[in-house]
Amino acid sequence: MKQRITVRDIMDKKGRERIVMITAYDATMARIVNAANMDVILIGDSAGNVMAGGDSTLGVTMDQMVYHTLCVTRTRPGALVISDMPFLSYQASVSDAVRNAGRLLQEAGAQGVKVEGGKRVIEQIRAIVNADIPVMGHLGLTPQSVHAFGGYKVQARGRQAADLLKENALALQDAGIFSLVLECVPASVAGEVTEALDIPTIGIGAGPLCDGQVLVIQDMLGMDKTFKPKFVKHYANLYDTMLGAIQAYASEVREGTFPAQEHCFKD
Ligand code: KIV
């Protein structure tokens, strides 16, 4: 049996092999992802957008994250499975943070959690790590802070902001995170942070100098034609493919050509 990828395997890739991460939220997609040999599957709180139709991730609850994570881990992925800590599951207290992180491992089978934020949540991150729960950090455009940022805007532009990002990244590394997502920051800044850290960085809208890359699966498959930010590449046009298939089904049912003889049971 193929060995499951571990946190240690991901850390060891730094400077040697690029890391590929993708999101998944349900078993059907997870099975396809499993066949594609990913390094990390992230059950992102982007579920609030792509699964639940919200315009932010703020409405996502712990119970929803447990549910989506379980849907993925039931497919027995070979990739490392990391689950997002949703809004208000860790900000209010250290004990909330440890208990909620623990739920994602105990009830849903994740191997680690992802936490947004830097020094402001460092005590929570340290406590989760001390409970032997691996933590992936997340800096730059952290979507749970959308209202504080005044929208989804590129972060860490300018020397001062870039230095602050690096300072936060180093503090998170010191607190024990095993890798760091950098979202929507200038490529040169992501490169500087990547060089300054011993742990791998995983970029989204952060250019090619990170140690790895992540995309939301619905985005890279082109399932929503209206969502095409600069950092997303459509590797397929599933919106049109799926629309065409559903329209063909509807026409055949209306014309009476489906079901045909080969779809009928004999007596
Ligand atoms: O929620 C998510 O999918 C994420 C990735 C975009 C990094 O945090």
Structural description of this entry:
This protein has helices at 7-12, 27-35, 47-50, 62-73, 94-106, 122-130, 146-149, 159-175, 187-196, 217-220, 238-255; strands at 19-23, 40-43, 80-84, 112-116, 135-140, 179-183, 201-204, 212-215. The protein has 267 residues and is an alpha/beta fold. The termini are far apart. α5 links the parallel β3 (80-84) and β4 (112-116). α5 packs across α6 and α8 (159-175) packs parallel to α9 (187-196). The protein has an eight-stranded parallel barrel with strand order 1-2-3-4-5-6-7-8, surrounded by five helices. 3-methyl-2-oxobutanoic acid binds at residues 23, 42, 44-46, 84, 181, 183, 204, 214, 216. 3-methyl-2-oxobutanoic acid (KIV) binds next to β6.
Bound molecules: 3-methyl-2-oxobutanoic acid
CATH class of the largest domain: Alpha Beta
SSE order, one letter for each helix or strand? HEHEHHEHEHEHHEHEEHH
**N-to-C span:** 43 Å
Q: What is the overall number of helices? A: 11
Alpha-carbon Rg, integer: 20 Å
CATH level-two architecture of the largest domain: Alpha-Beta Barrel
| Overall pLDDT | 97
Strand order of the largest sheet: 1-2-3-4-5-6-7-8
How many β-strands, per DSSP? 8
Q: Sheet with the most strands?
A: 8 strands, parallel, barrel
Number of domains: 2
CATH topology of the largest domain: TIM Barrel
Provide the helix percentage. Answer: 25-40%
Structural class: alpha/beta
Q: Enumerate the spans where pLDDT stays under 50 for 5 or more consecutive residues.
A: none
Basic shape: globular
Strand proportion, as a percent range, falls in 5-15%
Can you identify the CATH superfamily of the largest domain? Answer: Phosphoenolpyruvate-binding domains
